[in-house]
Design brief:
alpha/beta; single chain; about 220 residues
Length: about 220
């Protein structure tokens, strides 16, 4: 059993006049997955880590491109990538992962500790916390108002927990960080095209967290 699997049922945090309920639903993260993640870090960031602990500076918002929660969870729960994503398997066998998964009704699930590296955003994994939103199939923006509200609450909670967080970006904006001090990717050929979660969603979450003074893509 990995030391990273932490079991707690429901966490309720209060702040800014509202509450946030986070349901813990850990994904599989055995020692094998830990080892493959360390291998990914070494190969892509030229770092030999003792652990997977990170010091987050960025929050990255995503959509899953799948409209069903159970299918999304099953995808992240696998420890090894399948052969359907050659654009990813060529860069490492460890499966993609995410810290938070928000269902279409706004329910928030935590899949792994938020200070542990997840594979969710090329170049920025080592500095970021990722939030996935169920939806966006066929690259159609169908994310809900409930998801917007939940993302605002998560961002607020994370900024309070990690005051050093500087940036809030969408996955589609990640390449703007190339050559930035927080960019880690050493393979110049490892890039993918992303559309999620789109400008509408990002604008709404940014408006809802404007008082936090988080930097966006235009500040990179």
């Amino acid at each position: 059993m990995s030391k990273y699997i932490i079991c707690f049922s429901v966490v309720i945090l209060f702040g800014c006049g509202s509450s946030i309920e986070i349901i813990d639903r850990p994904i599989n993260f055995s020692e094998k997955r830990v080892g493959l993640t360390k291998e990914y870090i070494k190969n892509h960031y030229e770092i030999t880590p003792e652990s997977l602990e990170i010091d987050p500076k960025i929050i990255v918002l995503h959509w899953t491109a799948i409209n069903n929660f159970d299918s999304c969870y099953a995808l992240f729960n696998r420890e090894i990538l399948n052969d359907s994503r050659p654009d990813l398997t060529s860069a490492g066998q460890v499966n993609v992962s995410i810290h938070f998964l928000v269902n279409r009704d706004g329910k928030i699930f935590q899949l792994m500790p938020d200070n542990m590296m997840a594979r969710h955003c090329i170049g920025l994994n080592y500095n970021s916390i990722g939030i996935e939103n169920v939806g966006g199939e066929d690259n159609v923006d169908n994310l809900t108002d409930e998801q917007i509200d939940s993302n605002i609450k998560i961002v607020r909670t994370l900024k309070k927990k990690y005051p050093a967080i500087e940036y809030l970006i969408g996955h589609h904006e990640y390449r703007l960080f190339e050559n930035h001090r927080l960019w880690r990717e050493t393979d110049i050929n490892y890039r993918t095209v992303k559309y999620d979660p789109g400008s509408r969603f990002m604008n709404a979450v940014r408006i809802g967290t404007i008082d936090l003074n988080l930097k966006g893509a235009e500040d990179i």
